[in-house]
Amino acid sequence: MDGPAPAASRREDVYWMDSARVAGGSPCASAAPPSSTFFDVAVIGGGCAGLSTAYWLRQHWAAGARAPGVPAPRVVVVEARGVGEGASGRNGGHIYPDDAPGGGVVRRYGRAAAGDVHEFVHDTASRLQSIARAVEERCEGASSRVRCRRGGAMMLYKFEEEVEAAAAAMAGVDASPDAARLLTTAGVTAAGFPGAAAFGIKGATWNPAAASWNPYAFIHEWLLPNAACDVARARVDAMAYHGNEDVWVLTLDAAPRRLCARAVVLATNGYTQHLCPSLPITPVRGQCIATDIALPCTNVAWDDGDVYVAATEDGCVVGGMRWRSRGCEVGVVADDELHEEVSAGLRDAAGALQELVGGEEGAGPYQYQVTHEWTGVMGFTPALLPLVGEVRGGGGGPRLYCCGGFSGEGMAKAFGAARVVSGLVHAALWDGVRVEELVPEPWLASVLRVFDPNRTFPEDGEEVGGSG
User: Fold this and answer.
1) Which of 189, 191, 238, 464 has the smallest set of CB atoms within 10 Å of its CB?
2) Environment class of 187 (CB within 10 Å of its CB; exposed 0-12, middle 13-18, buried 19+)
3) pTM value?
4) Are 271 and 406 in contact (CB under 8 A)?
């Protein structure tokens, strides 16, 4: 069946940006130009990870994690375009913490380490949802465009083997009100998907901790105002460590043409190799459409996350279907154009979703409307784990940090990862500072992880996975 025809992608076609803008086309908050050319910390990348790093640097200082008399850290965020207009504002709009410790993490690092990652991601998701609720309560729900909905997520399985694998993964997870649980086909039907049996669904994982929201609105309504940092709208063309002065120098394509900083954080995710080619973060383009199909929960996914859906206030966003592209969109950095075959796949997925929630299989031409369509560039690592920590041995100097490689799950991980990397920066810059943070060992960048000449992508023959 043929869905609505794809249209050319424009900036205004991004649902999150379009719906977050106030009358007159202005964003919810604006960034002031940099007040200086010398800073303690330069964060490259003005998305969720970058602004969260600036926010947590300020929070660590305010909480007293500093030597006596140390003034507030001078932080600049350098962003090549508008704040939040990269992948953070162009994703699928879901906060989807893991259903259970990932099998790949368990195999490589053991169940204890995998459990740490799982707990850390759930803590991050819980923090974000609490902040979003506070923003909406402050605005009494009327003017806030964050629109955080915590209504749970459904990962649908079409094969019995998938159900068995999910059961095995969750076997060692402590039971809690937010713990994921398995549903039968009847349970999926009762949860609001009457077409489950006709669609061939064998079961599902129900994750009550998942939510959907407008990430672009969150950045402009809360994160940017609370980051309390300078913002330079410029592209970083080069960076170099000057040992005589013990500073990093960033060369920009716009005024001021040069910025200096004692430490640099790369929060550039899919664009990281432009500045640090040795970091194994590969760009992968994702594509989404916004439709008027109503969901019975806030998130749903199937085909191992190849199709992912997030509820909006007037329908839902459908993303995925990268496999329709010959190269699965791996290595693609352009987010201003659409792939026609992926567009067609997304419309097929939306049609399948309509059958799932409507209960009618093959009921004729799709009746839904596509209101927006866009792409965004994610950053994937070989192990599908973020690189969070100091880049040692190949970055060209000390105090160079990475906070990226979220592998399609940035909304559930970036805020917490930034909390960790900002603590490491604090400990390096100010003597006597000891910021105690939960740092899952598999996340830490190291010489072995970053500079292994035998590394491949994807690692161990794994498919490029995750969601955008």
Assistant:
1) 238
2) middle
3) 0.89
4) no
Q: What angle do CA 121, 265, 467 make, to 5 degrees?
A: 40
Check residue 219 and report its DSSP letter.
I
CA nearest neighbour of 369 among 313, 312, 307, 315: 315
Q: Is pLDDT of 376 > 90?
A: yes
- Residue pair 391/449 in contact by the 8 Å Cβ criterion: no
What confidence tens digit (pLDDT) does each residue in 123-141 have? 899 999 999 988 888 876 5
Structure confidence at residue 215 (pLDDT): 94
- How many residues in the chain? 468
Nearest Cα to Cα of residue 101 among 446, 440, 401, 463: 440
Residue 29 to residue 220: CA distance in whole angstroms = 5
Q: What is the pLDDT of residue 336?
A: 87
Contact indicator for 335, 375 with CB cutoff of 8 Å: yes
Q: Which residues contact 192 (CB under 8 A, 6 or more apart)?
A: 295, 296, 297, 357
Q: What is d(CA 209, CA 222) in angstroms, rounded to the nearest whole number?
A: 21
Q: What is the DSSP letter of 321?
A: -
Of 109 and 406, the structure prediction assigns the larger pLDDT to: 406
Q: Is the pLDDT of residue 26 over 50?
A: no
Dmax (CA) of the chain: 72
Crossing angle of helices 48-62 and 410-429, rounded to 10°: 40
Query: In 234-297, which ranges are E strands?
Result: 236-242, 247-252, 258-266, 282-291
Cis peptide before 458 (omega within 30 of 0): yes
**How far is 413 from 132, CA to CA, in rounded Å?**
16
Q: Using CA atoms, how far apart are residues 228 and 58, in angstroms rounded to an integer? A: 7
Q: How far is CA 355 from the centre of its chain?
A: 29
Residue 403, strand partner residues: 388
Alpha-carbon distance of 113 to 115, in angstroms, equals 5
Tokens of 349: 């997925």
| pLDDT tens-digit map of 414-427 | 999 999 899 889 88
pLDDT band at 288 (very low <50, low <70, confident <90, very high): very high
Label residue 46 by pLDDT band (50, 70, 90): very high
Would you tell me the crossing angle of helices 111-138 and 410-429 to the nearest 10 degrees? 100
